């Protein structure tokens, strides 16, 4: 079984990250997400959670295009590694 190597795609506030994950899923792009801060800091510190999104290396171009399409011109920062 071949192991997929995941690469960092972007980091977004949770609401935007969840929207992006739906778009990736709808377009057949596998992804993984991890929280940046964790529940304890979010609950105690009142910080908005952020998620880091990762995709397989072979899907990076398609995923990057989807991010650009989804967030271009909206004033939402897009972060690539």
Q: How many beta-strand runs?
A: 3
Helix-strand pattern: EHEHEH
Mean of residue pLDDT values: 82
Shape estimate: globular
Total of helices:
3
Termini separation comes to 27 Å
Describe the structure.
- A 3-stranded antiparallel beta sheet has the order 1-3-2.
- The protein has one domain: Alpha-Beta Plaits.
- The chain has 81 residues and is of the alpha+beta class.
- The chain is built from 3 helices and 3 strands; from the N terminus they run E-H-E-H-E-H.
Search tags:
81 residues; alpha+beta; Alpha-Beta Plaits; three-stranded antiparallel β-sheet; 3 helices; 40% helix; globular
How is the topology of this model organized?
Blueprint: E1 6-13, H1 14-26, E2 32-35, H2 39-45, E3 50-56, H3 60-71
Antiparallel strand pairs: 1-3, 2-3
What's the short story on this structure?
By secondary structure, the chain is an alpha+beta fold.
């Amino acid at each position: 079984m071949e192991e997929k190597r995941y690469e960092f795609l972007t980091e977004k506030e949770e609401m935007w990250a969840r929207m992006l994950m739906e778009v990736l899923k709808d377009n057949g792009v596998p992804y993984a997400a991890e929280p940046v801060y964790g529940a304890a800091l979010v609950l105690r510190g009142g910080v908005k959670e952020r998620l880091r999104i990762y995709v397989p290396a072979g899907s990076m171009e398609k995923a990057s295009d989807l991010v650009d399409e989804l967030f271009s011109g909206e004033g939402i920062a897009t972060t690539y590694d």
